[in-house]
Write a structure and sequence with these properties.
One of its GO terms (cellular component) is plasma membrane. GO terms for molecular function: amino-acid betaine transmembrane transporter activity; antiporter activity; choline transmembrane transporter activity. With 109 residues, the protein is mainly alpha-helical. The protein is built from four helices and no strands.
């Protein structure tokens, strides 16, 4: 049973990483002017949803979706800062903290 739980969370981690990769590729695509980057973004989001479907086999849907979205938002914000020099203000980071807190509360419920 522990191995199955590990696999569900491994799929969740893959879904999150693929979602963040999709967002990065979409940014690099420059409004889909760069078609290869745009196609990679689409491929990553499709792969992310595929991994998410496997994760929800063993993780409650509300928890899985909150993890996927919340952690994806946090990592995308960090990637935006590291790769594109985008900076959130205090209120933006407070919003992300609220999302992460909500995800943790769902996970603990």
């Amino acid at each position: 049973m522990q191995n199955a739980a590990f696999m569900h969370y491994a799929f969740m981690a893959a879904a999150i990483v693929l979602e963040v990769a999709a967002n990065i590729f979409v940014k690099y695509s420059d409004g889909f002017r760069r078609r290869v980057a745009g196609a990679l973004g689409i491929a990553c989001i499709l792969a992310s949803f595929t991994a998410l479907t496997q994760a929800v086999k063993g993780i409650d849907l509300a928890v899985a979706y909150a993890l996927w979205g919340g952690v994806g938002i946090l990592l995308t914000a960090l990637a935006g800062r590291a790769l594109f020099g985008q900076r959130l203000g205090r209120i933006g980071w407070l919003g992300i903290a609220a999302i992460v807190a909500g995800v943790l509360l769902l996970e603990l419920s």
